[in-house]
Design brief:
mainly alpha
């Protein structure tokens, strides 16, 4: 009987007026406002007890008033007003938080999570656990995303309590353990104590008193200076049912009673009065127990609800039975049974509400799982698409590299072929130039030979004229040696060896060219000057110039075209071409 109060006390101290978090998770919005937010968070965590929260709120509202167009700052000012205004009616607080959520929109997910967390706290106090659970789950996702382990621990803590109410002890334990682990990481000793006490309550309700006692026994070893007054009362109330030694019962019940008086919490004070009375019953002091039982009855009648009155009647019945006042004991025992029966009736309704609550929470969980599955599916789809694109990109880069290497190799091969062709062409050009020089030399030698022979003939004619010497045979021999046709035939034979198809190409392209004009073309091709050509042809240089002019005209070449350049640039059949 005495043990039933521990659960209710945990509910009373389950939620805080404002949930604390590491201020660094707030995105900066203004130096002055951010500084006040730092103080507010510190006060919420119990680290800034030397500041006045109402003063902080007043200064926040003053700063926000200077920035009427900053919706995020206005939303945060509303949030802190709710946190620092525990006297606000739940409906008013909920409406203010709705306004804050509307102002902040989706621009600041962390702000939304904080606001929803505070709404969940309000809904929990109103026993609207389904909506509270939904908000806790939404907030937890953001806290986990940004790494706010303190507030993530709070969400698990509160979700654990909801599952405890539903009798889902496995889920309650898992969330309480998660909360304890998160609080340990942020070095929140006071928070860990709350989580440990919740775990003890879960084990006790689940029928595993051994685990509950182990936790409470470990807590009893802690320095009480590190506990808040409320935490100390909750611990003592939960620990008393496990004690059998009268001295320990009296010690712990008295400590709980004195601390409960300090808190000013009527429910805590009621439970401490009952625990004190039961301790005196166990010690065999019914008169002392009667004093605390009657004080508990007066307190319970002044409370709005009949919660705990059943325990008051049970204690009074035991007190009168110990005094052997059977009529009074029977009277209070009857009241106890009546109250319990009424409680059972209320319990049936509560069971129905619990079943409905379970169904609602299960729907929320299923929807959350469906959303998670959809998100996972989308993530997998994006991953597959991303990997496919990455693979395609890699394949494209690989193919491009292969093509590039192939092109570079082909370019190197082509450059090598071009180099070899150029070297071959240079070699051939050198050979042609050498042959041309040889032809020119032969032509000049022939010219000089003919000139020498003509000079010899002229000298012999002078001798014949002056001395009447017969030179007929010698002159005939000399004249036959300078027959130009034979010289030309020899030159032509050598020229075609160096420049094959030259005459046939010109003849095919310019059929009107005469043999003498073709001969002139050959002399021009090997680079002889007009004077040299004139000496070979036994004509004046002027005649050669005129012949060149007529040749250009017959070939249809412009005046600016040099015949020597034209003949050198001709591409004749059989000429070498670049390797492919």
């Amino acid at each position: 009987m005495k043990r039933i109060f521990s659960i209710f006390i945990l509910l009373v101290h389950l939620t805080l007026s404002c949930l604390a978090a590491n201020n660094s998770f707030w995105k900066p919005i203004g130096e002055d406002f951010d500084r006040l937010t730092l103080l507010a968070d510190g006060w919420s965590r119990g680290e800034q007890r030397d500041v006045n929260p109402r003063d902080i709120l007043s200064r926040m509202q003053s700063v926000a008033a200077l920035h009427p167009g900053d919706d995020v700052m206005q939303a945060r000012a509303i949030y802190w007003r709710v946190c620092f205004g525990p006297g606000l009616e739940p409906a008013v607080a909920d409406s203010l938080l709705d306004e804050a959520l509307h102002l902040v929109g989706d621009r600041h997910p962390y702000d939304r999570a904080r606001f929803m967390m505070q709404q969940a706290v309000i809904l929990s106090k109103q026993a609207d656990y389904a909506d509270a659970y939904r908000l806790y789950m939404s907030a937890a996702a953001e806290f986990e995303a940004v790494g706010d382990e303190r507030l993530l621990g709070y969400t698990h803590y509160n979700i654990s309590y909801i599952f405890l109410l539903l009798g889902e002890y496995a889920e309650a334990e898992a969330n309480a353990v998660a909360a304890d682990s998160l609080f340990a990481r942020v070095h929140g000793d006071g928070l860990r104590l709350d989580a440990q006490m919740l775990l003890a309550s879960i084990y006790e309700r689940a029928g595993d008193s051994g685990k509950a006692y182990d936790i409470l026994h470990e807590v009893s070893r802690l320095d009480s200076a590190g506990m808040s007054t409320a935490q100390r009362v909750v611990f003592l109330t939960a620990y008393l049912p496990y004690l059998s030694d009268p001295d320990s019962l009296f010690k712990y019940s008295d400590a709980a009673y004195r601390l409960a008086e300090v808190t000013g919490d009527s429910q805590l004070y009621l439970s401490s009065l009952l625990n004190k009375g039961w301790a005196f019953i166990d010690m065999g002091l019914p008169d002392s127990a009667d004093h605390y039982a009657r004080a508990a009855r007066r307190l319970s009648y002044g409370m709005r609800t009949a919660r705990g009155r059943e325990g008051v009647y049970k204690l009074l019945a035991s007190v009168n039975a110990a005094r052997r006042d059977w009529d009074s004991a029977y009277h209070y025992q009857t009241l106890y049974y009546d109250t319990r029966e009424n409680a059972r009736g209320d319990g049936v309704l509560a069971d129905v509400r619990t079943v409905n609550l379970k169904q609602e929470i299960e729907k929320i969980r299923i929807n959350a799982l469906i959303e998670q599955d959809k998100e996972a599916t989308r993530s997998r789809a994006f991953l597959v698409v991303g990997l496919s694109l990455l693979g395609l990109l890699a394949a494209s880069v690989y193919v491009i590299c292969l093509l590039k290497r192939k092109m570079q190799a082909e370019q190197r091969r082509q450059m090598e072929r071009d180099r070899q062709y150029i070297a071959q062409l240079n070699h051939e050009m050198q050979l042609v130039e050498s042959k041309n020089r040889e032809l020119s030399s032969n032509a000049m030698l022939l010219m000089k030979k003919n000139e020498s022979l003509r000079k010899a003939i002229r000298e012999m004619e002078n001798i014949h004229k002056n001395y009447h010497v017969d030179i007929g045979d010698i002159k005939s021999e000399l004249v036959s040696s300078i027959k130009e046709d034979e010289s030309w035939d020899s030159f032509k034979l050598h020229f075609e060896g160096v420049h094959p198809h030259f005459f046939s190409f010109l003849k095919a392209k310019y059929p009107r060219l005469t043999d003498n004009e073709l001969r002139l073309c050959a002399y021009i091709r090997i680079g002889l000057s007009n004077k040299q050509i004139a000496q070979i042809l036994l004509v004046q240089a002027k005649a050669v110039i005129q012949a060149r002019y007529r040749l250009k005209k017959k070939m249809g070449l412009g005046e600016e075209t040099r015949l020597s350049d034209y003949f050198v640039s001709l591409t004749l059949p059989g000429d070498a071409s670049p390797a492919q």
